[in-house]
Amino acid sequence: MGTDTATDVFEEHRPVLTGVAYRMLGRVADAEDVVQEAWLRWSRADRETVREPRAYLVRTTTRLALDRLRQAQSRRESYVGPWLPEPVVTDFAGTVPDAAERAVLAESVSLAVLVVLESLSPLERAVFVLREAFGFPYAEIAAILERGEPAVRQLAGRARRHVEERKPRFPVDPAEQRDLTERFLSAATGGDLDDLLALLAPDARLVGDSGGKAKAPLRVLETADKVGRFLFAVAQQPIPDMEFLFREINGVPSLLVLSGGKPDSVMSLDMTEDGRIACVYIVRNPDKLGAVAP
Description:
This protein has about 290 residues and is of the alpha+beta class. It has helices at about 5-25, 30-45, 55-75, 90-95, 100-110, 110-115, 120-135, 140-145, 150-165, 175-190, 195-200, 225-235; strands at about 200-210, 220, 240-250, 250-260, 260-270, 275-285.
């Protein structure tokens, strides 16, 4: 197999490899590093003996991601404040024509689900990502992880139950999400605290990720009153040259806040079934905003 062919094969599968690595790790740079290492191993492999390149590449990427995830989990224990995944701009509507598949991919990359995945063991997370997001057969996952198929099915069931218990329990229409995000922005910047509080569920939460490198709460805020008053106070102190852009980020309409044309923060909302805000996610750690730069 020539170099050009090897490159073509790898590039054909790169989107899946990047998708697996990002969902495993929650960081774009880490995912890119893993995919690059997978390429190096692919380029050095005796490809004449590789019967199924896709299986080989996914297996290599998953194992590399598992190793990096185990290292990252120990580092995150010393992270300053809450930890959120690194936001990424998505456009499943433009790249995945099937609506059902698009919904699955969007949910699997949402901040809410990625936060839940943080509480799984590395193996549970790998099984969940491969099975639920990409539909790999149990037998193939077992081969990738070098585990028996019954053990993989057990891991999958445990991970699925854990995620189902903690993720939002109903599908969100993108148009409704966009409308709520627009009303949230209007209320937060409009100078009326009551308008903002009316949009929040009584048990609303706010999770802010700054990594200690920007202003954000170092603890999760809980209750509509605390979340609303914090957001209202922040809105009264606008950042220099502030600009708001609506972007599909991690599968949902979100707010990208710019300062002087550069990303300052990303805000994403979880909705309740009655159309109010269940959770506000704010990523302000500058190290995590490179992938959303306009």
